[in-house]
Amino acid sequence: MTQTSQFLINHGLPLVFAAVFVEQMGLPLPAMPWLLAAGALSAAGKFNLLLGLGATVVACLIADAIWFYLGRYRGNRVLALLCRISMEPDSCVRRTQNVFTKYGLRGVLVAKFLPGMSTVAPPLAGMSGMNAGRFFAVDAAGSLLYGGCLLAFGYVFSQQIDQIAAAIARIGGSALALLIGVLVLYVGYKYWQRQRLLHALRMARITVAELRKMLDAGEAPLIFDLRSSAALEEDPDLIQGAIHLSTDDIEKQLSQFPKDREIIVYCSCPNEVSSARLALRLQRQGFARVRPLLGGIDAWRELHYPMEPRTEMVTGSSVAALVTRGPSNLHIQEAGSSKSIETRSASSGEGKK
After folding, report:
1. Beta-ladder partners of 293
2. Per-residue pLDDT tens for 93-144?
3. Residue pair 264/237 in contact by the 8 Å Cβ criterion
4. Fewest 10 Å CB contacts: which of 84, 132, 139, 257?
5. How far is it, in rounded angstroms, from Cα 125 to Cα 256?
6. Where are the alpha helices (DSSP H) in 111-172?
7. pTM of the predicted model as reported, rounded to 2 decimal places
């Protein structure tokens, strides 16, 4: 028996609880190895499977309750925090927003199995105004499914897990050093990848002051709001002249946008990685005048620059009308499976203070 197994036998339930709780709070410390090991020990009668499952569900619910109510009462500040601590900051949040918007409660049910999404889903549910009772009922079911699958997998393949643990124990400190080295290399690669992307577009970014001068001068750039529908419901105001479209919708309709027109893209994450990635893809498609907005919508709002609310919808128009009439009086949004263009009020209000 390895030292790790003996330690898990002696401190099984608190260790499982702590591992799951830390993982669900967003720290990059996976609980899967501990749950698999607990399942393997239960096959040998050295760990209580039901108590382990209960500890897993309780740990998930406590962590998710913290994130849920932070999302409900702190909203976009929580998303900004997740952007900073996540391994895939902006893209992880945006991807989870899209899944949550598309699948709703079903997204909560499967979020536990998707790396990065299990932490982002609860605050998004809180931001969306979802009923707390419904959320926690589905979240408990998802946590039960998550813990049950991993513990059962460890139980069924207990012999193989024991063999792997014994092999690691024979290697000794070298195995631990290798694992730590792989983790350090992974984190370093992600950091290098992020910095390389931002460096590629550093000279092309536009500040909110520069964009404001463009609008005041009567210029009509295409301004794309890349936030998810869930984020837009929480904060429905857009930058003056902006159009809300997903990155997929923009790429599908590129043929309708002139390549010589100024294009500005922004999102809600402070690192603007999502908008930078889209800007880079558009540049590769021949759009030479595309730039991400430095600081996104939050930087625009901090200076109390004009915002525009969504108003009545006009259906049956195409994106081509946007290019003809200019972005200051049209807004495109998803309505079911079809696209619609909605008009704005003639006067634009000032941003929230």
Report:
1. 206
2. 666 666 666 666 777 888 888 766 788 888 888 877 788 999 999 999 999 9
3. no
4. 84
5. 35
6. 117-127, 132-156, 158-171
7. 0.58
User: How far lies 219's CA from each of 129, 174, 341, in Å?
Assistant: 38, 62, 21
Q: Which tokens in the block code for residue 185?
A: 């290399």
CA distance 202 to 195: 10
- Quote the CA–CA distance of 117 and 100 in Å, as a whole number: 10
pLDDT tens sequence across 162-193: 665 555 555 455 655 666 777 678 667 767 76
> Which residue type, as a one-letter code, is found at position 169?
A
- The identity of residue 92, as a single letter, is C
Record the tokens describing residue 199, joined without a space: 């460096």
* Rounded-to-integer distance, Cα 43 and Cα 160, Å: 12
121: its two tokens: 């889903």
β-strand partners of 338: 335
In sequence order, what are the residues at sequence separation of 6 or more whose Cβ sits closer than 8 angstroms to the Cβ of residue 64? 24, 122, 136, 139, 143
